[in-house]
Amino acid sequence: MLKKETGHTEKVEKARKVPEGLWVKCNNCGEIIYRKEMERNLYVCLKCNHHHRINAYNRISITLDEGTFREYDAEIEPVDPLGFKDIKGYKEKINESQKVLSVKDAVVCGEGLINGKKVMICAFEFAFMGGSMGSVVGEKITRLFERALKGRRPVMIFSCSGGARMQEGIFSLMQMAKTSAVIAKFKDSERPFISVLTDPTTGGVSASFAMLGDVIIAEPRALIGFAGPRVIEQTIRQNLPDNFQKSEYLLEHGMIDLIVERKNMREILSRLLDLFKPDHIKRDIEPATYRHRTTDASQKK
Amino acid sequence: MAVHQSLEFERSLVELEAKLLELKHSHTKGKVDLKTDIKKLEKKLQDLKKKIYSGLDPWEITQIARHPNRPYTLDYVQLICEDFIELHGDRKYGDDPAIVGGLASIGGRSIMLIGHQKGRATKEKIFRNFGMPNPEGYRKALRLMYMAERLKKPIVTFIDTPGAFPGIGAEERGQSEAIAENLTVMSRLKVPIISIIIGEGGSGGALAIGVADKIMMMEYSIYSVISPEGCAAILWKDGTKAEIAAKELKIGAKELLKLGIIEKVIKEPLGAAHCSLEKAARSVKEAILVSLDELMPISIEMILEARYKKYREIGIFYNPSI
Questions:
Q1: What is the pLDDT of residue A217?
Q2: Interchain CB distance below 8 Å, A173 and B248
Q3: Which helix or strand (DSSP H or E) is residue A10 part of?
Q4: CB-closest option in B188, B226, B249 to A184
């Protein structure tokens, strides 16, 4: 039933976008850091604690118990419903992204265990057209909630997206309604939806399912908002306040529940699952049978 | 008559109209009989209008959708409702003038009517924030929708906004959350919902009062995930490419009908709604009444099932396992 570990690791390897090399530079403070060190620290800068974007499979592997991830709907692919062409055609952009990344669109969905507790999980792949939501993203998230409803499982989504995918026009806009509708249904169940916002979560994604979590968690200093800061600045012609649209700012204004550092995320999620668990449900798997990998999957061969 | 503000492609029409007026003027004043000339010119004007308005491109339609003389929500309310009492405020923070709502009577039925509201003169434009709502606008709409649900009144929404307001306060007070909440609540609201895009359907700010059982668009309105200008700025890195973006995005009523996103296109009078408010209003009223007649006899369970199914099925993708 569980996906073979090797296949998953291969995918992680392929999905890695960071260029090879022994050293990496922090996007925030510019510190040069030994790659292995950075990976062990879950792509968080050792010096400034900047949380770098990570790809979907890495996100899943640092969240779930080792080898427990089973992917759903990996085969669903985007098409070009409008025949959209800007400087490049949409089809061409899809092909290019699919070639460098090991995903067919901007989300990876599936199920797995966190400390032995079964969850439905979805992680965004920002490298795929800015993690934008089109028909495929909307459909996969909808199916995930439908499965969760059927199997009475909690759902967690790690958002990382610029918003709706313009190239699919009105279909993208309607995915906001579609995902929000399935969540309305899901909330009839007694299972929680935990929404984790990572840098960035904006536009049509933040204005639909991402803000509909029973619990909303953000990584530190993530950009979260409806309109992008540049658009706001141009509209109101004022400088924006310090920290504007950052996780800390949202927490202060009552828009999210918690800010959780990446290294603590798994533990917090696990505790939330425990606290949300209906009394009559025992662990899905006994503790002795699982083991968590603290380091990143890509280190393994 | 209001100051006639003309669009680029309307210019030849305006010139002809001026000529016609001049002719009529000298006819009533003068001794020469100009009747035949006037008739000829009137015919010419009509033909030209027909020609121009049958071949508008998406960018021209965008201009009409934003036309400064185009009827707004409260214009329609005045023309189609026997009664309307506006209700104010979200009971949480404030009252957003960019969204209006209240109980209305139309064709003898009482409904909850909610719509974006733009302003016409500069002062009113600012007061209405150019029809761009803040979170409290969406929360007021939500409050009114819950009220409609409890009192079993169907909801009719008029959509006409460039988009939700991108401002500091809007973000602070949770623009995203306000929109998302409306989407999720509307998907299950236990009364029929009818939406009409009367002008601009600007992205999430439009959708936030637009999850409906029946969505209709005025012939020269637009509905889009992003404004053509915004799209051009991002994808072409050039805001002046909006004309092309408008075409690529497929934002016109006819296109969206073809794509199965909306249920009906409401025909506008020749020269678009701003040329004859009464005619446009009559069509809107009829469309609302017909839709109410269709939806009201159906059980709410069936309506909700159909509403969910409609949104569940939206999206085009390739699924090799099917």
A1: 98
A2: no
A3: helix A5-15
A4: B188
Q: Are A139 and A150 in contact (CB under 8 A)?
A: no
pLDDT of B55-65, one tens digit each?
899 999 999 99
Nearest to B246 by CA among B11, B6, B66, B54: B66
**Is there a contact between B167 and A170 if contact means CB atoms under 8 Å apart?**
no
Beta pairing partners, A253: none
Under a CB-based contact definition with an 8 Å cutoff, are residues B103 and B84 in contact? yes
Looking at domain A55-294, its CATH architecture is Alpha-Beta Complex (3.90)
Lowest mean pLDDT among A94-98, A288-292, B3-7, B308-312: A288-292
Q: Where are the domains of chain B?
A: 8-55, 62-312
CB-nearest to A184 from B184, B261, B318 is B184
Rg (CA), chain B: 21
The token pair that represents B252 in the structure block: 């016109």
In chain B, the residue whose alpha carbon lies closest to the alpha carbon of A216 is: B177
* Chain A residues near residue B165 by CB distance under 8 angstroms: 235
Nearest CA in chain B to A165: B225
Determine the residue among A145, A174, A245, A255 to mutate to test chain B binding: the one whose Cβ has the most chain B Cβ atoms within 10 Å. Answer: A174
CB contact under 8 A, B224 and A212: no
Look over chain A and give the mean of its residue pLDDT values, rounded to a whole number. 89
Taking CA atoms, B136 is separated from A209, A251, B24, B128, B152, in Å, by 20, 19, 51, 13, 24
Question: Which one, of A43, A69, A55, A59, lies nearest residue A127 by Cα?
Answer: A55
Q: What is the pLDDT of residues B126-172, one digit of tens each?
A: 999 999 999 999 999 999 999 999 999 999 999 999 999 999 999 99
A226, A234, A235, A242: best to mutate for the B interface, most B CBs within 10 A = A226
Task: Tell whether domain B62-312 is in CATH 3.40.50.880.
Answer: no
Residue A13 has pLDDT above 70, yes or no: no
Contact: B187, A180; criterion CB under 8 Å:
yes
Cβ contact, residue pair B176, A226, below 8 Å: yes
> Domain residue spans in chain A?
55-294
CA–CA separation, A250 and A200 (whole Å): 13
For A104, phi then psi, to 5°, come to: -90, -25
Question: Encoding tokens for residue B12?
Answer: 């030849």
How far is the CA of B2 from the CAs of B69, B70, B276, in angstroms? 8, 11, 12
Convert the pLDDT of each residue in B197-241 to its tens digit.
999 999 999 999 999 999 999 999 999 999 999 999 999 999 889
Q: Which residues pair with A109 in a beta bridge?
A: A72, A122
Of A6-10, A110-114, B115-119, B280-284, minimum mean pLDDT range: A6-10
Residue A292: pLDDT over 70: no
* Tokens (6 digits) for A37: 């060190």
Nearest CA in chain B to A250: B172
- In this prediction, residue A281 carries a pLDDT of 57
